[in-house]
Structures are given as structure tokens and as C-alpha cells.
Amino acid sequence: MDANFLRPSTEHINADTDLIMFQPSEIIGEQDLHSTLKGYELTAEKQMSKRFKKQTTTILDESLGSILGKTMSFVDVSADEYMKLYYKAEDSLTTETNPHPSKILSHVLAMGMYLTDNENCIYLGILFVVLSVIIYFMSIVS
User: Fold this and answer.
1) What is the dihedral of CA 74, 77, 80, 81, to 10 degrees?
2) How many CB atoms lie within 10 A of CB 114?
3) With bands split at pLDDT 50, 70 and 90, how would you rate the model's confidence at 16?
4) Residue 83 maps to a domain
5) Among residues 125, 28, 120, which one has the least CA distance to residue 73?
6) Both 75 and 44 in a single domain?
7) What is the mean pLDDT of the chain?
8) Domain residues for 35?
9) Is residue 3 assigned to a domain?
10) How far lies 138's CA from each of 75, 131, 133, 135, 141, in Å?
11) Is 24 a residue whose pLDDT tops 60?
């Protein structure tokens, strides 16, 4: 018996036009979709894209009270969150060859993780601006 006889042939797969996975497909973008749709299909597509498109919100879209409330909440829970990230950073730096990582490196890594988490960087910046204004007025008074 010949070994090629037992091996399945792929010639009929390549010649078959019903199989979609072997045929190159065209990627349709939003612009292509709008150019091919007409009438009711186009309006329905536009309504669906409006309904399900995620609205991006920035800090400028929020009210001043909301920003100050979130800043005070940030000050309230920042120490606990930072300590959790510090222990996580210390755990990720600990290896068998170095069981006690440098404290400075652990704090730097934890601060980097803390600033990239959620919107902490924005609220820390707001806190620094408020502190700088307080220091400025203290220097004027004295």
C-alpha cells in the first residue's frame, strides 16, 4: 500500500468554492458599509450606530461639585489603594534570587501603578494645584 494513498488530498478543498474559510475575504469598514447601503438600511444603520456608540466623557464634561467630590474621595481612599499596590509591586519584584527587593524600587513601581490606575493622575494633579494655591497665598500673607 502506498503512503500517499492514505494521506488525504487537498485538491478538492482548494477547488471547492462553497468553503468560505479558504477564500480571501474582504474587510468591510464603516465607510464601505455606508456606501453600499441604501434607503431604509442606511437610516437603520445610522440609528443603531448612534444608539450603541459609546460616548466619551472627559473631566471637562463634569460639574465642579462632582470634580471636587471625586477629589475628596481620592484623598480619602488614596492611602489604602496605594498600600495595596505597594504590596502588589513588592510581590512582583520578589524572586528566589532576590527575596527582599529594594524599598525605593518598590515605591517607584507602586507609584507608577497607582498613577495609571483609573483617574488617579487627574485628581492628584488637582490636589497639587490646590496645595500650590494655598502655599502661594501663605507666602503673600507672610
Assistant:
1) -40
2) 20
3) low
4) yes
5) 120
6) no
7) 80
8) 9-52
9) no
10) 22, 11, 9, 5, 5
11) no
Q: Average pLDDT for residues 21-30, to the nearest whole number?
A: 55
Domains in the chain: how many in total?
A: 2
Does 126 fall in a domain?
yes
Dihedral sign of CA atoms 83, 86, 92, 94 in order: negative
Cell numbers that stand for 76 in this block: 480619602
Total number of residues shown for the chain: 142
Q: Is the CB of residue 45 less than 8 Å from the CB of residue 37? A: yes
| Same domain membership, residue 111 and residue 80 | yes
Average pLDDT of span 77-103: 90
**Chain segment 42-72, per-residue pLDDT in tens:** 677 777 777 777 777 888 888 999 999 999 9
Q: Could you tell me where the beta strands, DSSP code E, fall in 45-119?
A: none
Residue 13 to residues 8, 9, 17, 22, Cα–Cα distance (Å): 10, 8, 8, 8
Q: Are residues 81 and 117 in the same domain?
A: yes
* CA dist., res. 106 & res. 82, Å (int): 11
**Residue bearing cell 488525504:** 8
Domain-located, residue 89: yes
- Indicate the pTM of the whole model: 0.56
What is the per-residue pLDDT for 66?
92
Q: Which DSSP symbol is given to 97?
A: S
